[in-house]
Design goal:
The chain is an alpha+beta fold. About 45% of the residues lie in helices and about 15% in strands.
Length: about 600
């Protein structure tokens, strides 16, 4: 029942960027989200389900659970086929699914790649085992299909040859000659992916290859693999939880040791699976995430499951402790994700209803919680509501915990003067989600804004709105629908805010049939040059930005002057001089 959160909204908005087949190819194959290219587990997944069902989470959840059910069957059958123990396969599936590392993957739509990737890995291992046992050409082709498709699911598929190699060398080492082509393709893909992808410049995704960092990260993941060590979830009675963690950890080590003593090669395969699938994320020292363990803990579960199925008496206590403790953590994590997503759902639905009640008005939000901002607004969720403009009211970011590596909430805050002008003119309404339901608090905020901010000029004005008419100087024509035409020279008075660096203009140039050719636009701030641009005749929407001139006193109102040439004479000589039509103009 979990709704959408964070990255989900970026993928849900992907279809809005597609207008023709070229856009479709770009949407499927262009590097996105830290330079990743995952057409199957992200692009096609979101595009298809959003197109069929809209912004409804249940279909996404159904697909995720169906995929995981297939995974459980594949795990059960693989363990049974290789070891001959159906009980071992059943135990492996159960030990895996209860692990809290899977809680995020199962309750967050964007983590679907962590569920789909084990599916193609397991399917490939099944095909390899059939080929190892029978020499079937069809099985070999099937493995290669799974192997290649896996690259479109998750780039970590490059480790599949290591997993296949472990299965081969442990059970049928005479067939090792089939492994080099797999490693060659994986290596080629890694080089190609690295060359065309655009890695994130964020410190969160910086790669640390030094040995101490790798060992530290490995140790952290090894501890998290028990499914019990979750300091953010387990805060009470730390001694009891630590005892449970040690019990599960010692039980796992004993299970693997016992299997090795019995010469059960499956224990080595389980450890190889864990090490291979975990290795690619070890350099991400600053981005240790529990859902990265979704596939790796399967290796440990496959080894421990076989040990539990052999029914040694000492296995009962560790298994029961593990299942109870990690099951509780899984439940707590899932409930947290669900409740956070419910906050997102309530705010999104409230904004949609407010926009329907007040079409064309700007919605200003105040008292937004940190979870609501980072779970909803930071990823531009409201762009999914066509024609709806949502911003934070002045001071509306006060409750938001800062995460500079993820974004800046201040970019969503409407300028004080702009907010006062829009609210007083009825162009904007203020809503608060405090208490769980979006409430209209415009009346309260209107008095506050006019009393404390009403005499301030807006830093950015919308020339087409009457609320900003007092800041427009000479050269402007009357409002024409959603735009206002400028003559060859116009002025605007604005008030810069601390940190302002840029003069910006949103202009519109209708189709003129080539009557003017290129149009030159020049901007001056307090008489100082701020930029000069040329708009070709085939450009209609124009966004112009340039640096503020040096030496300006940003503590006083500024005059932005715009000069446009040549102008278009409406109706011939003697008609209105039309330069460009403007929307927003000001300084940021």
């Amino acid at each position: 029942m979990a709704w959408f959160a964070m990255d989900d909204f970026a993928w849900l908005g992907l279809r809005q960027q597609i207008y023709d087949w070229k856009d479709a190819l770009a949407a499927l194959l262009s590097p996105m989200a830290q330079g990743t290219i995952r057409p199957f587990s992200e692009r096609i997944y979101f595009l298809t389900l959003e197109w069929l069902f809209g912004i409804e989470a249940l279909p996404f959840r159904i697909v995720g659970f169906a995929t995981q059910l297939l995974n459980l069957w594949l795990v059960l059958r693989l363990v049974e086929r290789v070891t001959g123990s159906r009980a071992g396969g059943t135990a492996a599936a159960l030990l895996w699914i209860v692990n809290s590392a899977l809680a995020v993957s199962m309750s967050w739509t964007s983590a679907y790649n962590q569920i789909l990737w084990p599916c193609v890995m397991l399917a490939g291992c099944h095909a390899r085992w059939t080929w190892l046992e029978t020499g079937s050409r069809r099985a070999r082709v099937t493995e290669w299909v799974c192997f290649l498709l896996g690259f479109g699911v998750l780039e970590l598929q490059v480790v599949y040859p290591a997993v296949a190699g472990a299965l081969t060398l442990l059970y049928h080492r005479e067939r090792w000659r089939d492994l080099p082509p797999l490693f060659a393709v994986a290596g080629a893909y890694a080089v190609l992916n690295r060359s065309i992808a655009k890695p994130s410049g964020s410190a969160v995704y910086a790669l640390h290859w030094d040995l101490p960092s790798l060992l530290q990260t490995f140790g952290t993941y090894l501890r998290m693999a028990t499914g019990i060590w979750r300091p953010d979830v387990v805060r009470e009675m730390p001694g009891i939880w630590q005892a449970a963690e040690w019990t599960a950890g010692i039980g796992l080590a004993a299970a693997i040791t016992w299997l090795l003593w019995r010469r059960e090669r499956w224990a080595l395969f389980g450890m190889a699976w864990f090490a291979a699938t975990l290795a690619p994320v070890l350099p991400l020292k600053n981005h240790v995430s529990d859902y990265y363990l979704t596939a790796p803990v399967l290796g440990l579960a496959m080894a421990a499951g076989l040990a539990a199925a052999r029914k040694p008496a000492w296995a009962i206590v560790p298994v029961v402790v593990y299942a109870a403790a990690t099951g509780w953590v899984s439940r707590a994590t899932t409930l947290y994700n669900y409740e956070r997503a419910e906050q997102n759902r309530a705010l999104f639905a409230g904004v949609r209803e407010a926009a329907q009640l007040h079409p064309g008005k700007t919605i200003l939000l105040t008292a937004v919680s940190s979870d609501q901002y980072w779970g909803l607004m930071n990823d531009s969720a409201f762009r999914l509501l066509e024609g709806v403009n949502v911003q934070l009211a002045p001071g509306g970011d006060a409750n938001i915990i800062r995460h500079p590596e993820l974004g800046n909430p201040a970019h969503w805050v409407m300028d004080e003067g702009e907010a006062a002008a829009n609210v007083s003119a009825g162009e904007a309404l203020v809503y608060s989600p405090a208490g769980g339901k979006l409430r209209n608090v415009t009346a309260i905020w209107k008095n506050h804004l006019l009393r404390n901010m009403g005499r301030r000029l807006a830093a950015v004005v919308d020339a087409a709105k009457a609320a900003y008419a007092s800041q427009l100087g000479e050269g402007w024509h009357a409002v024409d629908g959603a735009i206002r035409w400028a003559s060859g020279r116009v002025t605007v008075r604005v008030e810069a805010r601390p940190g302002a660096q840029t003069v910006m203009m949103e202009a519109f140039r209708p189709d003129e049939g080539g009557r003017r050719g290129p149009v030159t636009v020049e901007a001056l701030v307090n008489g100082l040059p701020a930029g000069r641009w040329e708009s070709a005749h085939d450009r209609q929407e124009v966004l112009l930005q340039g640096p503020l001139p040096a030496g300006l006193d940003l503590g006083k109102p500024l005059t932005v002057e715009v000069r446009i040439s040549p102008v278009l004479q409406e109706g011939g000589a003697g008609g209105r001089a039309l330069g460009l039509a403007f929307g927003k103009i000001g300084v940021r």
